[in-house]
Amino acid sequence: MAKSILDLYRRYFEERQFERLDLFKTIADEFKVKRVLYPGSFVHVTPSFVFPSVVYIDNDKQANKFFKSPEIHQLIEDRKVYPQDASFMFHFADYGDGFDEKEKSFDLLISQYAGFVGQYCKPFLKKGGLLLANNSHGDAGVAAMDKDYQLAAVFSLRSGKYKMSKSNLDDYFVPKSSIKLTKEYLMQLQKGIGYTKSSSAYLFRRIY
Ligand SMILES: C[S@@+](CC[C@H](N)C(=O)[O-])C[C@H]1O[C@@H](n2cnc3c(N)ncnc32)[C@H](O)[C@@H]1O
After folding, report:
1. Which residues' Cβ are closer than 6 Å to ligand 1?
2. What CATH number is associated with residue 91?
């Protein structure tokens, strides 16, 4: 059988059971999200199964080829859970260099294993909008030190399911070591540090 470009999605996300569909569903159910920005997405189109309007950005050639393929439309059509037509587009760009989108026009910014998305792409997030970040590269830790963001919820992963909690949020981002932390230090480190309590994903609200 001829190889399909969709094999990339299947291999990286379906077969590894790493789609994170319920994470996005929980956010869609709980918060009012219209426009979503996903820098460093690679071919992770799962947000389009849940959110009708998503802009993806990546500087990877394979991702560029993937998003050019008409097959992606069928994948999203088959999997989407909302009645309206899906609207999605892709910028083949370095998210740090800027891209052609309106500032303060997105309700949700997704940062998953792709560097400091929450910092570089913050201008595109509306005030009151949400940043979904993990701490793989330290982006959540930097957001926790950023006065523009306030932690709104955490997601723990148990038996393959994400569970959201809004309780005891002050317990998170307390460093295990007594080192004096700065945003600059964490960004130079490019990986998350140890905290006394941590979670699989964090949701911040842009408050300024
Ligand atoms: C490890 S993958 C993560 C993919 C996806 N976010 C996920 O969670 O499965 C990191 C992706 O971020 C992209 N990336 C990293 N830095 C980037 C940048 N400055 N501009 C655009 N894409 C970037 C890489 O090309 C790669 O596709």
Report:
1. 39-42, 44, 57-60, 63, 94-96, 112-115
2. 3.40.50.150
When divided into structural domains, the chain yields a total of 1
pTM above 0.90, yes or no: yes
Protein residue whose Cα sits closest to atom 18 of ligand 1: 94
To which H or E segment does residue 58 belong? strand 53-58
Print the domain residue range for 173. Answer: 6-206
In a domain, 1, yes or no: no
189-199 core/surface letters (b: 16 or more CB in 10 A; e: else): eeebbebeebb
pLDDT by residue (tens digit) across 13-57?
999 999 999 999 999 999 999 999 999 999 999 999 999 999 999
What token pair was written down for 190? 């490019």
